[in-house]
Amino acid sequence: MTREIALAEVEGLVGTEIGVSDWILVNQTMIDTFATATDDHQFIHVDPERAAAESPFGGTIAHGFLTLSLLSTMNYKALPKIREQTMGINYGFEKVRFMSPVKCGARIRGRFKLSSARFRGAGMLMTAYEVSIEIEGERKPALTAVWETIVQFDPKDRPVHD
């Protein structure tokens, strides 16, 4: 179960790995559903026979953006909950690099290192995470990124600094 921390504890975690998600199986149903949602039906993703015959991967691979989108579920399951948080906002990415393809049938998981945390205004905390998505049994990650988020909270809950 994901732990809970106080807002005042966040800054002290900068520079540490604060979460690793469970493994997620990327199967053909997931890939096909994403292809339908994004209208990206390139054969390398949706045609197992053709992908096996015409690609170097031996079958279909997940869309890079599917892999990236799974960071949301990895985040919810791996990172500590901040007690005072009223809302979380995805601010964006500084850098995303797709390092290795995720083959259909592979399992992936996310690693989250808090690289910065700074208060902005009365009720916001800007955070940045160095994230990587590992592929089980592979040396290189599927992707690496710097992910920025905003933690919103009631200004009365802002920690007092000396």
Overview of this protein structure:
By secondary structure, this protein is an alpha+beta fold. The protein has one domain: Roll (Thiol Ester Dehydrase, Chain A), CATH 3.10.129.10. The chain has five helices and eight strands; from the N terminus they run E-E-E-H-H-H-H-H-E-E-E-E-E. Strands 2, 3, 5, 6, 7 and 8 form a six-stranded antiparallel beta sheet that branches. It has a two-stranded parallel ribbon with strand order 1-4. This is MaoC family dehydratase. Pfam families: MaoC_dehydratas. It comes from Ferirhizobium litorale.
Q: State the shape.
A: elongated
Distance between the termini: 33 Å
CATH topology assignment: Thiol Ester Dehydrase, Chain A
Helix percent reads 10-25%
* Number of separate helices: 5
Estimated share of beta-strand residues: 35-45%
Specify the structural class: alpha+beta
Protein name: MaoC family dehydratase
Pfam families: MaoC_dehydratas (PF01575)
InterPro entries: HotDog_dom_sf, MaoC-like_dom, NodN-like
Domain MaoC-like: 13-118
Could you give a quick summary of the protein structure above?
The protein contains 5 helices and 8 strands.
What is the topological layout?
Blueprint: E1 4-5, E2 17-20, E3 24-25, H1 28-38, H2 43-46, H3 48-54, H4 64-69, H5 71-78, E4 81-82, E5 85-98, E6 107-120, E7 124-135, E8 143-153
Parallel strand pairs: 1-4
Antiparallel strand pairs: 2-6, 3-6, 5-8, 6-7, 7-8
